[in-house]
Design brief:
By secondary structure, this protein is mainly alpha-helical. The protein is built from 13 helices and four strands. Helix 2 crosses helix 5 and helix 10 runs antiparallel to helix 12.
Length: 314
């Protein structure tokens, strides 16, 4: 649209121009998905020119100012609607917290899989002295025992990254309390709102910016850079090709470390979304008073009085 170039001489004009252009960018992206998603059917395969250009756009816009303002505009619209209709905001809180709970409860099973796989590895290696473990029916997936042993770190990463917001919703994180317990109920909600706006969401944005290019530098060649302009990436798209990382830290070890980089972005996105949900919940509880504390909160029943007390302390 060119508004940024026309108004970008000062901070206010730059901000206003990006805010207005965000509406156009959202609509254009939704109406022209092929311009930035044409590469998806050709993942880890030879790409045609259109797919290469689309991948270049996807990489650029994935950590761009344009994406930030598009997300910011959506946040503003939802927030304004929620301020007018509190039932709508409560619905957003319930959906976002439900999402965190579902993902966390499913991902938590990775911990059990990790334990069972470790037992199988020890049993097969110690009793039968096998060097390879194969699984599958019809199509057999076979890897050395050292690969399966090294792969256990992936389960641990899944639990850490995908259960973090679930643990937050459940109140399982330890709060570093300097003055929180001594202030009033409404003051606590204000602290929670400020914490989500000035700590959770900004921190997740910074991690996303670093993690985005950290991921793509291990997926494609030539390596993209955070300093690349869209024009430069499009020009280099002619020689763009897949180079998915298959490096192991040890001989015959786990060789899909790009999955850890994907999990980093999943973690960051979920923390960002949960920061929005926590801001909304804190505002609504501040507005409606103590009677609304924990309203619609889907917390697990631990079934142990001592564990419940410990959870409340945290």
């Amino acid at each position: 649209m060119g508004l940024v170039e026309a108004w970008g001489g000062n901070a206010i004009g730059w901000f206003a121009a990006h805010l207005i252009e965000a509406f156009y960018n959202i609509g254009f992206a939704l109406l022209n998905p092929g311009l930035w998603l044409a590469w998806v059917p050709q993942i880890n395969a030879p790409m045609d020119e259109a797919a290469k250009a689309a991948l270049a756009r996807f990489i650029y816009y994935g950590a761009s100012v344009e994406l930030f303002f598009a997300v910011f505009v959506v946040f503003l619209i939802v927030t304004i609607a929620g301020l007018i209709w509190n039932t709508f905001m409560w619905g957003c809180v319930r959906k976002l917290e439900s999402f965190a709970n579902v993902v966390g409860r499913v991902a938590a099973w990775a911990g059990l899989i990790m334990v069972l796989q470790q037992i199988v590895i020890i049993f097969l290696q110690g009793v039968f002295a096998v060097s390879n473990i194969s699984i599958g029916f019809g199509f057999t997936f076979s890897k050395p025992v050292s690969w399966w042993s090294d792969e256990l770190k992936l389960y641990n990463a899944i639990v850490v990254t995908m259960c973090v917001t679930y643990t937050f919703v459940q109140g399982g994180h330890v709060r570093v309390d300097l003055f929180y317990s001594a202030i009033s109920y409404r003051a606590k909600r204000v602290v929670d709102m400020l914490g989500s706006l000035f700590f959770m969401m900004p921190a997740s944005i910074v991690i996303w910016l670093y993690g985005w290019f950290f991921l793509w530098r291990h997926l494609v060649l030539p390596n993209p850079s955070a300093s690349d302009t869209l024009e430069r990436l499009i020009q280099r798209a002619q020689v763009l090709q897949w180079n998915i990382e298959t490096i192991s830290t040890s001989a015959n070890g786990f060789d899909a470390y790009f999955l850890f980089k994907i999990l980093l972005l999943v973690f960051t996105g979920m923390v960002m979304v949960q920061g929005v949900a926590f801001f909304y919940r804190s505002y609504l509880e501040w507005k409606e008073g103590e009677a609304s504390e924990g309203k619609f909160l889907d917390k697990d029943n631990l079934g142990d009085d001592t564990a419940e007390i410990v959870a409340k302390i945290h």
